[in-house]
Amino acid sequence: MRVSELETPALVIDLDIMERNLRRVADYAREHDFRLRPHTKTHKLPVLGRKQIELGAAGLTVAKVGEAEVMLDAQPPELLVAYPVIGRRKLERLMAVAARTRVTVSLDSVFAAKQLSDAAREVQTEIGVLAELDAGQGRVGVSPGDPLLDLGRQIQRMPWLSLQGITFYPGHVPAPDEAGLEELAKLSALIEQATADWKRAGLPLHIVSGGSTPLLFQSHKIAGLNEIRPGTYIFNDKNTWYNSACGMEDCAGSIITTVVSTARPRQVIVDGGSKTFSSDRLAGSNEVSFGYIVEAPDATFAKMNEEHGYIELRQSKQEFTIGDRLRIIPNHICVCMNLHEKVYAIRGDQVVHEWRVEGRGKLQ
Question: 343-364 burial by CB neighbour count: b if 16+ within 10 A, else e?
């Protein structure tokens, strides 16, 4: 099938670009001696998780137990659940996953650690744990210093838990520009101090896990870091491009839409709205836009209803008619993948695979 024959809206993945992204990061990880445990939240596809492992990833990262269950089909040597797992039923399911591969969980509370220890004891299975440090994001993670050390000591005392080290997420450092590099230097100093305190306390430090796609190729500047777990890098999106972490030519994921109305002057409506695209705005910008229109760079994807996308052409010289197709690079590809039941892998103008998004909707 040709790409032009796809029913729209259709989320397409350019395999040539995706494979180049994967190789680039695999090479970077080897060059800097990083363990690569990529986050599958972006692609949600075991077939791509398997490809990451074949290129050298030590394992895969997920956020939820449901995602871990799906990613077992990728036959990972290990899985990191980078999210506290709370609740008996979820922990029972996690122990079933742990019966099939090594499992590590990141957490930031004694409560979560105690529940995990009790669940592991019931099935006599050791679970790895990373203590989560808040490196400045203000989301999850304990503060550096005594709170982190106290958490580590209490985890270490719990049966059936194997303390592996520290994890953090530097989401507050969005771009490797001048201001971002200053924040990166502060982050490096914080991690260096935290790991030094951890070692002085006699706590095991096999893994210092962190990183994000925007800072991916600056990861070697973070003192003590030895594992990276980027997710978006496999496809990239407008946010990644806007934050100078990639170029437009590195964006493998896009959504093909069809113009369905030109009733209003200098505006077209396409057949993709909030059920097709992420409603996330462009990070770090006041721009009101939900994606980049490849065929009309000066146009603005200004508004969405559930099934309607509003493309404003006031600043563009382009003219479109009903039936024309527009390819749009979304602001946030991870959310888009979660909205689509299936995606299409393409090479040139040919559709070579149709993949069901098996990790879609795995929120529990």
Answer: bbbbeeeebeeebebbbbebee
CATH superfamily of this structure's domain 15-234:
Alanine racemase (3.20.20.10)
Question: Residues in the chain, how many?
Answer: 364
186 contacts 163 by C-beta, under 8 angstroms:
no
Residue-wise pLDDT for 117-175, tens only, equals 999 999 999 999 999 999 999 999 999 999 999 999 999 999 999 999 999 999 888 77
Tokens 């563009």 belong to which residue?
Answer: 316
Radius of gyration of the chain (CA): 22
What tokens does 100 get? 């099939």
**Class (C level, CATH) for 3-9+243-356:** mainly beta
Q: How confident is the model at residue 178 (pLDDT cuts 50, 70, 90)?
A: confident
Q: Per DSSP, which regions of the chain are E strands?
A: 10-14, 35-36, 60-62, 78-81, 102-107, 127-132, 161-167, 207-210, 227-228, 253-261, 267-270, 291-293, 300-304, 309-312, 325-330, 342-347, 350-356
The structural domains of the chain, with segments of one domain joined by +, span 3-9+243-356, 15-234
Locate 216 and state its tokens.
């991916």
Structure tokens at 60: 């895969």
What pTM, to 2 d.p., does this model score? 0.96
**Which of the residue ranges 19-23, 252-256, 311-315, 322-326 would you say has the lowest mean pLDDT?**
311-315
Between the alpha carbon of residue 350 and those of residues 1, 6, 10, 155, 323, the distances in Å are 6, 10, 14, 52, 20
pLDDT of residue 180: 77
End-to-end Cα separation, the chain, in angstroms = 36
